[in-house]
Design brief:
With about 190 residues, the protein is of the alpha/beta class. A five-stranded mixed β-sheet has the order 3-2-1-4-5. A three-stranded antiparallel β-sheet has the order 6-7-8, with helices on one face. The protein has two domains: about 100 residues, 2-Layer Sandwich (Nucleotidyltransferase, domain 5), CATH 3.30.420; about 80 residues, Nucleotidyltransferase, domain 5 (2-Layer Sandwich). A hairpin with a 4-residue loop joins strand 6 and strand 7. It is flat. It contains seven helices and eight strands.
Length: about 190
């Protein structure tokens, strides 16, 4: 590897799971994953009923973030990106959670549903390259992102409030989901 190697990391704070990827980047070689980690603090638990992130869920998520920060320090990560999705985006106290994460030296930012969908598509396209029509469905704890692409160009992007945590708490039968998903026109 060349002398321009750099350790980078990404943290994804979802409604159910927090994911960490630490990688070494070399412009000539690309990315090599060094370590991955995850925890399920269920940050979005109870959000549908209260509109707020629960204090115990916040504490669990912050403990997870502190552990991930320590992993990044151990690996001498030079750049860290951290994003929060549906639960933090929708919660009345989401901005407060972001500030508490930043106090831990986690540069957390809330991303839009469109950005979440675009990142989901990029990840899937990287892992499953190919031309023609592609359809990605990324179900998280708080939302479902649907992305349709033709020859690498996104043609459809929709975020629906149909995540696993939310649906479990609301007790919605899965058979009713097809009433909310309208992609037939695009796929035809």
């Amino acid at each position: 590897m060349s002398g321009r190697r750099e350790r980078i990391a990404a943290i994804d704070v979802g409604s159910n799971t927090v994911l960490l990827t630490v990688a070494e980047y070399d412009p000539e070689v690309g990315l090599v994953v060094v370590e991955e980690g995850e925890d399920q603090p269920r940050l979005g638990a109870g959000l549908s009923a209260t509109g707020q992130l629960g204090e115990e869920a916040i504490r669990r998520a912050l403990r997870t973030l502190a552990t991930m920060r320590d992993v990044c320090r151990r690996h001498r990560v030079r750049r860290l990106a951290a994003v929060a999705t549906a639960a933090v985006r929708e919660a009345g106290n989401g901005a407060e959670f972001v500030e508490r994460a930043r106090a831990l030296d986690i540069p957390l930012r809330i991303i839009s549903p469109e950005t979440e969908a675009a990142l989901s598509y990029r990840s899937a396209a990287h892992h499953f390259p190919g031309g023609g029509r592609q359809f990605v469905a990324d179900i998280g704890g708080g939302s479902l992102e649907l992305i349709g692409a033709t020859n690498g160009r996104v043609r459809l992007s929709q975020s629906l409030p149909l995540g696993a945590v939310r649906l479990t708490e609301l007790g919605i039968p899965l058979g009713r989901l097809r009433d909310h998903i309208t992609i037939k026109e695009w796929w035809a």
